[in-house]
């Protein structure tokens, strides 16, 4: 079966540009595999609280899992979770999104 998804680096950069055009800052904290790396989003609500979302695919549909749970956490907790994930999967990308409303700016529902 042919995989028609964009390479991760192009997909991430397109989202960064789109968010930037709306005044939302996104930064690549860690580059993973440029073609097929999984993405972790570190949502910075700009109030010292964070949420971590992890990219998952269910039946070819993109979704986001709440890595740190439903409630916001402090930055140390978010960073510790991300560090564990990057040790497990060295090809993962980590993107920080600064948005007061906690929006992730990528397609796919949060589950």
TrEMBL record:
**Which branch of life, at top level?**
Bacteria
- Which Gene3D superfamilies does the record cross-reference, listed alphabetically? Protein of unknown function (DUF1491)
Q: Which InterPro entries match?
A: DUF1491
Protein name as catalogued? DUF1491 domain-containing protein
């Amino acid at each position: 079966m042919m995989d028609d998804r964009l390479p991760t680096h192009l997909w991430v950069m397109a989202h960064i540009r789109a968010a930037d055009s709306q005044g939302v800052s996104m930064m690549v904290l860690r580059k993973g595999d440029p073609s097929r790396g999984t993405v972790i989003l570190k949502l910075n609500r700009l109030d010292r609280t964070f949420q971590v979302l992890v990219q998952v695919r269910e039946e070819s549909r993109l979704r986001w899992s709440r890595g740190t749970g439903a409630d916001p956490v402090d930055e140390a907790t978010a960073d510790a979770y991300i560090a564990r994930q990057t040790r497990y999967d060295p090809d993962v990308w980590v993107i920080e999104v600064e948005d007061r409303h906690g929006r992730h700016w990528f397609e796919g529902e949060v589950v």
